[in-house]
Description:
Elements: E1 7-14, H1 18-29, E2 34-38, H2 44-48, E3 64-65, E4 68-69, H3 81-95, E5 99-101, E6 105-110, E7 115-119, E8 122-131, E9 138-139, E10 153-156, E11 170-174, H4 178-189, E12 194-197, E13 207-208, E14 211-212, H5 213-219, H6 255-260, E15 264-266, E16 269-273, E17 276-279, H7 283-308, E18 332-334, E19 340-345, E20 349-350, E21 379-381, H8 398-416
Parallel strand pairs: 1-2, 1-8, 2-5, 8-21, 10-19, 11-12, 11-19, 12-15
Antiparallel strand pairs: 3-4, 6-7, 7-8, 9-20, 13-14, 16-17, 17-18
Helix pairs in contact: 1-3, 1-8
Amino acid sequence: MTHTPPRHHDVIVVGAGQAGLSLSHYLQQRGIDHLLLEKNTPMHAWRHQRWDAFCLVTPNWQCKLPGHDYAGPEPHGFMKKGEIIAYLEAFLVKVNPPLMTGVTVRHVKPTSTGYTVHTSAGEFSARQVVVCSGGYHEPVVPRLAERLPAHIVQLHSEQYRNPQALPDGAVLVVGSGQSGAQIAEDLHLAGKQVHLAVGDAPRCARFYRGRDVVDWLADMGYYDMPVDQHPLREGVRDNTNHYVTGRDGGRDIDLRAFALQGMKLHGLLEGLQDGVMTFQDTLKDSLDQADRVYNGINAAIDRHIAQQGLDAPPPSVYEPVWQPLASVDHTRLDLAAAGITAVIWCIGFKPDFAWVDAPVFNGRGQPVHHRGVTSQPGLYFLGLPWLHTWGSGRFSGVARDALYLAEQIDAAQCRHLPAKQAGTSSPRSASATPC
């Protein structure tokens, strides 16, 4: 019986989002044979897992994919969903990667010469593997969701599209991170009665002392700070992102202001019994802590301005415009009495790297690495939050990380080339850097 050997590539890249495409850009520059495997289509999450009114929360000038900086007319604006997709589609055309779509990677296993990659399209082998599938795989929905009344529509944030797609009635949004806060705002602006379960997400100003806060933080070097120099070290990877928005040219998201306008705020979700949702008595503390972070970031900008002797508008301190009243119970919500017809779960995702069969994960299922390089030779990760800096999982920093990994991959390729090939252009392309 004839055995067909597995298809071999020097490098297999799993995932064709901005991380995988960025890496392909640099691997092609070095003439390194590689193949991208994508279970859906390139940039699938941007096309299919964002709501209609979605826009960037960071200014357009931070879009710096390799060889593809933002070149539009609004560098300090915030691209909307359609514009983001067009920007990424143009990047895909530029990179023109070696790509197979509709291929699910089911198992990656180390071998004596590299890796075996089992997929829905058959078996491949590779000397090196780069996981570029992100860290947001399985939507988190609590088990109590199973006990909600059947008539209540339930969506995860990745499924939400617009207020018009929901039934008439009030909506409960659970979670106040970036997605939860922006979806709650989207519903609120559409005239929906919104109940929001507020978590421990911090917030920041959109503009302060005459500039976007992102511009100030960039000048202060925050976005170049490596994770091992951050005060929280690797713990920063577990932090919830600050809520703010680029909608309508950019503005703060102030949950207290929403409450003044009729949004109902609650604490952390706790339980469900007999049609009554219960919440922890954490609302005031959560709002206060978010404001402390907000004012703390602004105070750091104040210090920078003073130290540099810069001319800027005067400083300010946010003062709460609303406080939870002791006479109002923010810990209970009778779903029927409140007319709740939909619940949107905005409490994030958990990773699923079960298909990567290598001893490189911690107790929470997260890969252990340094700048994406693991202890398993030839196995790398790219595109994860704070892989190296704040921008690692974003358009602003993934190019730097991809270049670094391409250099590591190139060096490993050279170490394993036969002696007669080292320093030659074969089997590498003529444009490749000699080993």
